[in-house]
Design brief:
The structure is a homodimer. With about 240 residues, chain A is α+β, with helices and mostly antiparallel strands. In chain A, about 30% of the residues lie in helices and about 35% in strands. In chain A, strands 3-4-5-8-7-6 form a six-stranded antiparallel beta sheet. Chains A and B meet through β2, α4, β6, β7 and β9 of A and β2, α4, β6, β7 and β9 of B. β9 of chain A pairs antiparallel with β6 of chain B, so a sheet runs across the interface. The first copy, chain A, binds a DNA duplex (30 and 30 nucleotides) through α3 and β2.
DNA sequence: TAGGGGAACTTGTACAAACAAGGCCAGACC
DNA sequence: GGTCTGGCCTTGTTTGTACAAGTTCCCCTA
């Protein structure tokens, strides 16, 4: 059962996306909303805070809230899982494991995943039949058996791990940059060597903060982009100089 | 004067970054923190909510909050302004305007910036003397005069616009992908044609939700990366299929 | 010793109240 | 006509209370 404020947030979100509150318009005041939903003002504030975090509405002290944008927001699972994302968007997704082996963790991996042995997996993912993404993932040893037990054509690893061992990915850190395709990248993705790839390196942890995997994902240029909304109040995005 | 919860958040953040609460450790309970700061629990909750939004701590109902990461978080201004970011990181930054002209807005620009005329500016930015970033920015007509009045070697446009006309950038939407360097890109950035560039397209608006600029920024590969923290509770990052 | 039960603890949700701070507008004033 | 001021509206901050829901861990039992 969802919380009260989530109901209110969902209803307001629907109204915004349906055009009841068009972009640029003002949202009803907190007092009005509180009256409409017979809720306390604090509860309404929590609801609109959700929308603000999604970048759907903005606010300034003293003035009414403004609708900033329509259309948005994927769940964490959809971002994390290529297959779940593609399916929810109506794409046809494919993929297979090209290689998989256990090995000792390098020093950087040992620190990041707090483990001494790792399972390294190379996967190629396709979208509408076209190779689009090359995943080089390193799993911590405690989850390795569950990953090895998966069929090599398993579509959604995230989903499978949840179904089988109840694993939930909860926190992620992502590093996004551009690289030139190496020989192997080029061959597997069907592009020329040196052509641009969008690289997403990420580390994911469980709800308890335990690291699960470290992955280097490379997308063919022109196939996929990342989108972020931020504001003066909430800025999850940062820029880094590479050494 | 900053709010109480901001003080508490800042203090906790400092403690985390200083290692008082190492990564993976538990934060004191809300009750303890409330006692320590002689604040209500609600105020403490607001403070830790800030840290959670920054991706510094995670939380689960029933269990203590966990420290997820050290080192983090730039202000919105630092992300938005290349110069402010570079300075705060101790880099030496340079740059110049290579071209600037007014023209009629294209159909897409007219919608995005809600204007019929735009000011187009091409800027090259350097880091430690090396060309790193090529900015193609389109300003809405209402801010164009202020931008034209800036000196061509103005380091921080963001800062200058704030100082002169009080303009504050408040909301942004970013689209990040990889592209191959075109002829002009390659010449100005000093790379070979076709080499990978990290592209960040963004649209920025004021606090009132009024669009200010639309920019296409291209970083030389290997110079800069973007970093995002997200969680199951707050996911500002989304993946998009390109047409 | 292994397991179950449960108490104590911790975070999540909701309500109520009050004041502060800033925006907005209309009416007064120059 | 233009400007300024004051009152009203709206969001921001803080405190207090109560209960719900989930986690942790100890103790007791089989």
């Amino acid at each position: 059962m969802a919380a009260r404020y989530e109901h209110i947030a969902a209803e307001l979100r629907d109204e915004i996306l349906a055009g009841v509150h068009p972009v640029g318009a003002q949202l009803p005041s907190e007092a009005e909303l509180a009256a409409r939903y017979s809720a306390a003002r604090g509860t309404v504030r929590q609801a609109v805070a959700v929308l603000a975090a999604e970048g759907l509405v903005g606010s300034r002290q003293g003035a009414r809230r403004i609708v900033l944008g329509g259309e948005r927001s994927q769940s964490f699972a959809e971002l994390h899982s290529f297959a779940q994302w593609a399916k929810s968007k109506g794409h046809t997704v494919g993929g297979e494991v090209l290689g998989q082996r256990r090995r000792r963790a390098g020093p950087a991996e040992a620190v990041r995943l707090s483990t001494t042995e790792v399972l390294e997996v190379l996967r190629l993912r396709t979208l509408e039949g076209e190779p689009v993404l090359l995943e080089r993932t390193v799993y911590a040893s405690w989850i390795a058996p569950a990953v090895e037990a998966l069929p090599s054509d398993c579509e959604s690893v995230t989903q499978a791990l949840y179904d089988r061992v109840g694993l939930v990915f909860a926190y992620g850190e992502h590093l996004i940059d551009a690289v030139a395709a190496g020989t192997e990248d080029a061959r597997l993705l069907g592009v020329r060597r040196g052509s641009p790839l969008l690289r997403q390196r990420r580390i994911t942890t469980t709800q308890e903060g335990r690291p699960v995997e470290w992955s280097d994902d490379r997308y063919r240029a022109g196939s996929v982009a990342f989108s972020i909304r931020n504001s003066i109040g909430a800025n999850p995005l940062t820029r880094l100089a590479l050494p």
